[in-house]
Amino acid sequence: MATNESVTPSPQAAATTSIPLPPPAVGPAPSVEDRVAPAAARLDALLVLAVVAFAFLSASFAAANSDFFLQTAAGRLLAEGRYHFGVDPFACTTEGVYWTNHSWLFGVVTHAVYDSFPGHGADDACIGGIILVVAKAVLVAVLAGLMIATGRQRGQSLWIPAACAALAVLAMSPRLFLHSTTLSYLYLGLTLFLLRRPRWDAPPQPETPAKKGKAKDAAPVAVGYPFKALWAIPPLCLLWVNTDGWFLLGPIAVGLYLAGGLIEQAQTHAADRGDRPAPGELKTLVFVWLASVLVCFINPHHYHAFMPPEQLGLTDGAKTLLLAEQDRIPGVLPENTQFRPVFVSPLDDLYYNQTVIGKNVAGIAYYPLLALGFVSFALNFRALRPWRIMLWLPFAVLSLFSARAIPFFAVVGGPLMALNFLDVGARVGTLAFANEKGWHAWRVIGRVLCVVAAIALIVGTVPGWVQAQPFERRRVAFHVHVEPSWKAAGAQLALWRQQGLISDADGWFNLSPDVANYMAYFGDGERGFLDLRLQLYDPAAAGDYVKVRDGLGSLGDEESSPNEPPPPEAPWRVVFAKRKVRYVILYNESSRPPRKTYLKAMVRMLHTPAEFTPLYANGDVYIFGWNAPQQKPLPQWATMRLNDDREAFGPAAQPVERAHPPAAPHAREWYEALWLPEKPRSPAVNLSMFRQLSQDARMGAWQQEEFSRWQATMGTAGCALGVPGTYAFIQPNIQGAHEASLDPPAPSGTYLTIRQIQQSLADNPDDPGAYVALARAYSQLLWSTKERERSFNQGFPHVALIRHTQIVTALNQAIKLDPDLDAAHQLLAEHYANCRRLGLPNYLDHIPKTTFFDVQLQ
């Protein structure tokens, strides 16, 4: 019989029994925005860092602008108590003209830093120069940060402001010289930042209704903005007016911002006006603007400071110089153009057709900066901020007028463009597709592309590839570059002054404006004729400069030759006598081949020994003394005069110091420019040109003198022997035999050239131009001296063979280093043509094959 019994679970079963719990609460899945935001923030930070680094490197190049030395020289005179405000100590054509030196404070600072360390003015490794270049780069990096901060409001993305700042820095980078104007870029950026600072840093404030009398639909205005930052602008303008001539942009920017705020406040239609002026802000701005204008009178020049910047070329003297260079072929930059590239406009075909001016990455960047700025305003047409238009438009017009104002437009246009695009982005973010996954992916991809572009700009900046040619001038470096030629010329001028050979009363004519800047620093009282401070020169002085320049053949008729005797009323005679000019100084940068301006003037003076006495030649600097045709040269010039014979064969002749073993030449590949700087071009290359021209002039004078003697002899023979005797004397064979019996001047200049070029190649075996100059000197010895007759007519073919080997070896080495060097190919072709014409291969056929020089002419 079945019974019912209760079953008690075992302890083990009770332990394993669990009570089911409800599932854990699951929160909402993270949105796409939340997942993208951290990556976007990291990319923004990386982009800002890359843009600031790009700005720092863009300003980190060797300071080689000559006006740095003029400003530093003015600071040195002021520190030594030898400077008087309003008086120009650097030009002989500015007597009675008031010089407004806006950059006097900048000059004092650069003098205190640069000249306080050993090696200033002589050594590129001077600590003072390194400090100045690094400080300039740091200030430009700070400017980039200010533009990024000005181009956004608190809480907005950094992506667009950083990208716009990168484009702005790229557009302004060609003008980031070690000059007081670079400080003006910083001052303008700081002014805009201070104008925007109250709104950028303002916390959310309650809104108040529109003022009585306004339309009912007027947008509410936020209150409670702090205005203390605005009062930092007047002290900034006070510093600005004593630093640079662009100080007027400070009060102008404040005035434009104020005018835009007044227009914006007067608008009554309902629209998005998140940054409208706060109550009391415009009133504060009025007082700030008035204070900014008034403090500009606190400077050593007082009201004289209120003048257009000299870089705009608005003075009568500048117009005279530009008018003299108007006639030219469109898009072509003549070699002898001096002033037009300085005052070129971005609308000029000369700007965008020349790689040395605007046809490069940095120069072309101005056009997208201008176009994108216009597009940003067009996209915000229905919600325009008047203050933005009031600032952007005048600076855009100024940059279109002069390329030297592009950096100021970049400082203003970059942040304003960013603000406009941020407004567009805010409106796009309210649309439906902005929440889709693909749209957020593009936000990340866009940031990545901008970071990659910024890194590419950094890489291209290191070797200078984003700038104008030659790229090596803008390679990343930290020093003030001192031309070796000016170092030596400064020492020579100091020695002449110590010996009493030159005085302050002597005027100097410089064919290049840069010469006056160098003379201001390296000389001590030598005053140039004209420089780029064109506000100092009246039309008469500028016209005299053009007359002398044209008269010396630099810009004259291309069909005329400087070898021809000058006309009786040569323009330089009148100008030099009126301006009390006694010396002419020529200068050509060693990094550039000699210009036609330079060569024709040099040839003219070398072939006019009755007026011009060569006194000094070293590298790229050449000095001539001038005396009127009816006057004798100054007595001291006999001591100062160049003497190639003494220098080449005298006891002071310097032998070539060669390394053992000599360094092998190396043709640098294009990618090696990233880490391997190019060695500078030797000044001896340009000096060799002077030696050759001087030797030609010397030979021409000797031939003319011997021909005059031959004519005199022929006349005497005609009187003594009659007409048949005279006829015999003019026979070509008799005259040729007479010329062959004469001893021409020794080719001392050619020997000096060979010696100096060999020394330069020992120091830098990678210079193709030096090999061409060496081959040209050897060629001159073979074809223009007694060596030619001894080789081909007197039975010494080994001399021609040695010269032939030297010429061909040097030219082949030049072509190996630079296959596109036209001068080397042309000289090699001319040499082989001369060999064929004079039968040099026939001489080589008679040389035994065991000879050391076994050369086969092709």
Structure description:
The chain is 53% helix and 3% strand. 41% of the residues are buried. A 4-stranded mixed sheet has the order 3-4-6-5, with helices on both faces. A two-stranded antiparallel ribbon has the order 1-2. It contains 33 helices and 6 strands. The chain is globular. The model is unreliable at 1-6, 202-225, 555-559 and 843-858 (pLDDT under 50). Helix 5 runs parallel beside helix 16, helix 25 runs antiparallel to helix 26 (723-729) and helix 25 (683-721) packs antiparallel against helix 28 (748-763). It has 858 residues and is mainly alpha-helical. The longest helix is centred in the C-terminal third of the chain and has 39 residues, at 683-721.
Strand content: under 5%
**Sheet bearing the most strands, described?**
4 strands, mixed
The value of Rg in angstroms is 37 Å
Query: What is the quaternary state of this protein?
Result: single chain
User: pLDDT under 50 segments (min length 5)?
Assistant: 1-6, 202-225, 555-559, 843-858
Category from helices, strands and their pairing: mainly alpha
Mean pLDDT across every amino acid position: 83
The order of strands across the largest sheet is 3-4-6-5
Gross geometry: globular
Q: How many angstroms does the end-to-end distance come to? A: 134 Å
Number of strands: 6
Number of helices: 33
Helix content: 40-55%
